[in-house]
Design a protein that fits this description.
The chain is built from 16 helices and 8 strands. It is α/β, with parallel strands linked by helices and 390 residues long. Helix 11 (257-276) crosses helix 16 (377-383). The mean pLDDT is 91.
Length: 390
């Protein structure tokens, strides 16, 4: 990756006033670690694949420089769990940094770095960037999902050569999922109020447009990182509120690109259908039944969701009216629907695989506007009764 791209990312971080939280580098991971933790101990997190591909050589380089690496080889989809996180990784006191070699271990890395008040060094080995700069991480307690706020510094080392990197089709779809996230963010502001994060919003919008225009690995990598910086700067105000993210909270975070593509198409279809139907002939939502279904999906208490529904309904009553919002976004949804065919064509051309069976995800789609502390256009789709038939 060239210095221009690194400078763009660092400039964006500075503009968004999050440069104390994240810094990007172009060069050798070893030199970055040596600068951050000279002659200290570091904890390096690997999956088995990355340890055998690069971990052994990296360990020897660190030892030769007087740095003491503690290597932890974890399953690829390791989840944070109150009962096993410290059994999983016995990080001792005195560790100066966490070094993460796998994107899907970013949550664990951020959690540990927050607990020990040390930085995370992320070595990008793929073009995929979604979730590498979290401001909160999923945490399972007794089977139910909660979130733990993280607060650590991230040092991100970009690959020297983006050619041959994996995950291009998946990265493209994760960037395109922000189309609905941007709309959902505007809907939340319209209904719930609050100060708009204009610079962050424009950064995400620009990144989406760049990714739609060019699917070169370098473009997709930088676009994804810009989205991550914007979400870090806003505490996830754009990404975490979206119907896409709420869907993944319910269906699981490690979904393939085919599922994500189908989700984008279904969300855009529902958004446009709802906006076009000014006189809604559908059922009133059955809040009690929805709360019971959500309690089963999340292994939680239905009372939490009933309270959430009441908060959402009160916000609708006191915010911009539903009919006004439909009119406001109708043209936008029509344009986005027209683009969905092109998104699918680009995804398949990149080697992505379509999802033939979405059946197991229908409940997650039905409820992705229902989660407390979120408000997206799927919340309004629900109020129109469009999801009562799912």
């Amino acid at each position: 990756m060239d210095e221009l791209a690194v400078n763009q990312l660092n400039t964006l971080a500075k503009t968004l006033k999050t440069d104390a939280r994240v810094k990007f580098y172009n060069g050798d991971l070893f030199n970055v670690v040596r600068a951050i933790a000279p002659h200290g101990r570091i904890a390096a997190l690997y999956t088995k694949e990355t340890f055998y591909s690069c971990g052994k050589a990296f360990t020897e380089r660190l030892k030769a420089a007087g740095i003491k690496p503690l290597n932890f080889i974890l399953p690829e989809n390791t989840a944070l769990n109150l009962e096993n996180v410290f059994d999983l990784i016995g990080v001792p006191d005195g560790v100066r940094a966490i070094v993460c070699f796998d994107r899907r271990l970013a949550d664990v890395s951020a959690y540990l770095a927050t607990i020990f008040k040390i930085p995370v060094v992320l070595a990008l080995k793929s073009v995929e960037t979604e979730g590498i700069l979290p401001s909160k991480v999923p945490f399972y307690m007794g089977g139910s999902l909660d979130f733990f706020p993280v607060n650590c510094a991230y040092h991100v080392v970009l690959p020297n050569d983006e050619n041959g990197l994996s995950g291009i089709s998946e990265q493209f779809i994760s960037i395109m999922s922000n189309i609905t996230a941007l709309t959902d963010y505007k809907v939340r502001l319209s209904v719930c109020g609050g100060k708009a994060a204009k610079i962050a919003y424009e950064a995400v919008k620009s990144a989406v447009l760049d990714g739609f225009a060019s699917q070169k690995p370098a473009t997709l990598l930088i676009s994804g990182l810009k989205i991550e910086v914007a979400n870090l700067a806003t505490g996830g105000a754009i990404g975490y509120n979206s119907a896409d993210y709420c869907f993944r909270r319910l269906a699981g975070f490690n979904l393939n690109g085919g599922v994500r593509l189908t989700l984008i198409k279904k969300l855009l279809t529902l958004y446009l259908l709802c906006a076009e139907e000014l006189n809604v002939p559908f059922k009133t939502p059955d809040y009690n039944a929805r709360a019971r279904e959500l309690a089963v999906l999340t292994k939680s208490d239905d009372g939490v969701f009933l309270q959430g529904f009441m908060r959402q309904i009160n916000r609708i009553k006191h915010g911009k009216g539903i009919e006004d919002l439909k009119k406001l976004f109708k043209k936008e949804f029509a344009v986005q629907n027209d683009a969905s065919l092109s998104i699918e064509e680009k995804y398949l051309a990149l080697g992505g695989v379509a999802e033939d069976d979405f059946t197991q995800y229908i409940k997650a789609l039905k409820h992705c506007g229902d989660l407390p502390n979120a408000f997206n256009f799927m919340t309004l789709v629900r109020e129109g009764g469009f999801t009562e038939y799912f």
